[in-house]
Specification:
Largest sheet: 8 strands, mixed
Order of helices and strands: EHEEHEHEEEHEEEEHE
Strand order of the largest sheet: 3-2-1-4-5-8-12-10
Bound molecules: NADP nicotinamide-adenine-dinucleotide phosphate
Radius of gyration: 16 Å
Strand content: 15-25%
Structural class: alpha/beta
Shape: globular
Length: 212
């Protein structure tokens, strides 16, 4: 596949780019800076673009088989910029006639019990609420885009750099936690889950939780 990867220079984005390249896909990696360190591969091109600009997305997405996102707000921006990124990306795909979109989302909107989302739980850290809430708002915009083959793939509650074990579980709309109730995944294993979904499209029109 020829994949346009938005947010390719980020912490999750570089792992997704590496996973795609290892599987033989060609990747165009987008960030505002236009540079992605630590990836040196003939099938990888780093380009500059602004994911809040429909024209940028439409131009960059044209000719690709799918668009993947690991976009995240910068520290100096309101997390609600995520909704502008989502709106521009959706419209950009439409203009470019690309219909597959796999988006790295947030775990906050996943259910931990019937009718209870992670963000609503007592222990959910106050400092994560603005970005978690913005990610839910972005999901709600995506969920209306019935004309696209979208999947919103959320990490576990905690995601960090770590080992690539190849093990993970997914759940539709639900937080994935282990027997002790811990919800965790490494960025490397998240990238595997993300690229598996991009390749296999088993969870189209789904908010997919990942974890161990
Ligand atoms: N447990 C959870 O639910 C959880 C945990 C961690 C992360 N996440 C989500 O996962 C996503 C990725 O996280 P991360 O930590 O990998 O993010 P990150 O390291 O901050 O990377 C963000 C990427 O987006 C790019 N970017 C930002 N604004 C852009 C714009 N307007 N146009 C184009 N590119 C832009 C950045 O590059 P430039 O700055 O050069 O543009 C960078 O490549 C985020 O949405 C985050 O909320 C969820």
């Amino acid at each position: 596949m020829d994949v346009l990867l938005l947010g390719a220079s980020g912490r999750i984005g570089t792992r997704v780019a590496t996973e795609l390249l290892e599987r033989g896909h060609a990747v165009t990696g987008v960030s505002r800076s236009g540079t992605v360190e630590d990836i040196d591969d003939p099938d990888f091109v780093a380009v500059s673009g602004d994911a809040t600009e429909v024209d940028d997305i439409a131009k960059l997405a044209t000719g690709h088989d799918a668009v993947a996102s690991a976009l995240g707000p910068s520290d100096d921006e309101s997390p609600e910029i995520l909704t502008a990124m989502m709106e521009a990306t959706i419209e950009g795909l439409r203009r470019a006639s690309v219909d597959r979109l796999v988006w790295t989302g947030g775990a906050g909107g996943l259910e931990v019990a019937p009718d209870t989302r992670l963000i609503e739980t007592e222990d959910f850290p106050e400092e994560w609420k603005p970005v978690a809430s913005a990610a839910i708002d972005a999901y709600e915009i995506l969920s209306e885009a019935d004309d696209l083959e979208w999947t919103y793939v959320a990490p576990a509650a905690l995601i960090e750099p770590g080992d690539r074990t190849g093990e993970y579980r997914t759940a539709e709309g639900e937080l994935v936690a282990d027997d002790e109730g811990d919800s965790y995944i490494t960025m490397e294993d998240f990238a595997i889950a993300f690229v598996d979904e991009l390749e296999e499209a088993n969870a189209v029109h789904t908010y997919l939780g990942t974890g161990y």
